Amino acid sequence: MTAPVTMRQIAAAAKVSIGTVSHVINGTATVRPKLRDRVLDAIRRLGYQPSALAQGLRRKRTNMLGMIVPDITNPFFPGVVRGAEDIAYKHSYRMILCNADNDPDKEESYVRELRSYQIAGLLIIPAAGADTAHLRTYASSPVPVVCIDRVPDGWKGDAVLVANEDGAYEGTRHLIEMGHRRIAVITGPLKLTNAAERLRGFRKALEEAKLRIAPEFVSEARFDTLSGYQSAMQLLQMSPRPTAIFACNDLMAFGTLQAARELGIRCPQDLSIVGFDCLEFTLLTDPPLTSIYQPGYQLGATAARLLLQRIDGTEAIPKNFLLPTELRKRNSVAAPASDGGSKRRFQRMGKFVRRPST
Fold first, then answer.
1. 0.85 exceeded by pTM
2. Do 298 and 324 meet the contact criterion of CB atoms below 8 Å apart?
3. Which domains, from first to last, does the chain contain?
């Protein structure tokens, strides 16, 4: 492995002082054109690559942005990251991506480590249960922070969110307009603001329609496929069972579809399902899932633009952007059957089970 080229070697090759080389590389002083050309020629010949980290430490700020996501395996988040990275790259910034695994302690560790790397700014999608204590460590520094998709309790800074309540309201109203009266909801962790907002939109639609549901029809899960499947298994074995389920993200909607299939419950003939996110795979499910579209790429891009404004020292008052959602109707919703399928015989894991009579 070849040793890195040093400023001393460049100075010797260009027959100038080390200080002159430093001024050319870092732009800290004007250098006569002839000397500058000699230094640049030596840099090219020797293949010198300056250390961005070292330059950033001297300036007390690098051209690096930190970004922390709660679960990189969730297919919604890569679109958010891509939007942020595109804007960062366009403005000559680079991104350090960290995955917190929905662990507030791991998130806090990353927050503190990124600060030690002299990042120029931080984008964060907070984990469930996270608070603002570790983010407040940035308050006394010039490093700005923008929260994306959700905010921790007590957060007073910049945030870029989507209209979660409006989206959930529209999805639930669609089920009501199709004639459903026994509608269950599978929420995300209610410690998260976006999960709480989606539940609020669900309840708002029910209240407007003067519908009441059993408390057991509200099931809290973890925004992943397995917990959606587990919640749906419980809901679909109730008597009477729901004729429709609003799953508060597409992964949980997919888990619901899997549970229904295992129980011999057909979608949409016996059960209607609405998701939230409108991920690409929902076009490929059988049937394609009705879902609430939220603009992941625009979330990331808008947050990155706001962060760069903060880095440049503009827009001093904290801002909250709220991006719109959109109901995308597909084939997983239909009018309920006359008996809601509550007396169906269904099959689970190779064993037939008869529903209790209503």
1. no
2. no
3. 7-50 (1.10.260.40), 60-163+296-325 (3.40.50.2300), 164-293+328-354 (3.40.50.2300)
